[in-house]
Amino acid sequence: MATLSINPVSHTSTDNDAVTCELFIAAPRERVFEALTDPKQASLWWRHKDVCQMDNFSMDVRTGGKWSTTGLSAANGPIEVHGEFLEIDPPRRLSYTWISSWLPKVTKVLFDLENLNGGTFLKLTHTGFAGDAAATENHTHGWSLVLASLQAYAERGETIASRN
Fold first, then answer.
1. Which domain holds residue 92?
2. Residue 119 placed within a domain
3. pTM value?
4. Degrees (nearest 5) of the Cα angle 25, 99, 50?
5. Per-residue pLDDT tens digits for 68-112
6. Within a domain: residue 15?
7. Which of 128-154 are b and which e, b meaning 16 or more Cβ less than 10 Å from the residue's Cβ?
8. Residue 5 CB neighbour total at 10 angstroms
9. Residue 1 domain-assigned (yes or no)
10. In this model, does residue 48 exceed pLDDT 80?
11. Residue 89 belongs to a domain with what CATH number?
12. At 66, phi and psi to the nearest 5?
């Protein structure tokens, strides 16, 4: 069992193929899963001031269903991410492909959600970087910011508007 963490704890694999982030969210996993899979909710929290702003989410939440979002990155300007849902097991597991405009290769994102101490232990694993050290470093940082925003939303209802 991992140690509880208020802030995301992120790691990059030694072969630079994977990023993992772990975090405790003081909210039921049903709430967390819904925030991850409801496009209206994702648009409320998936943003970090001055780094990245994602909105316009579209999600067909079923195995084989497509998802996409667009936004603005301080580093890259207009960005787009899309993919396909691979596994949906509410409220325990969610997996999808991730193809971004700044790293046009197919990678895979997996969320594992576990009941823990009245809340949710979330583990994210993002794989498929194939030794690209810069990509794993950037995604490690990015996922830490995204998961902190998810935590604030799920625990306290903080949205993009209330954080700005």
1. 9-135+143-163
2. yes
3. 0.92
4. 55
5. 999 988 888 899 999 999 999 999 999 999 999 988 799 999 999
6. yes
7. bbeebeebbebbbebbbbbbbbbbbbb
8. 12
9. no
10. no
11. 3.30.530.20
12. -100, 155
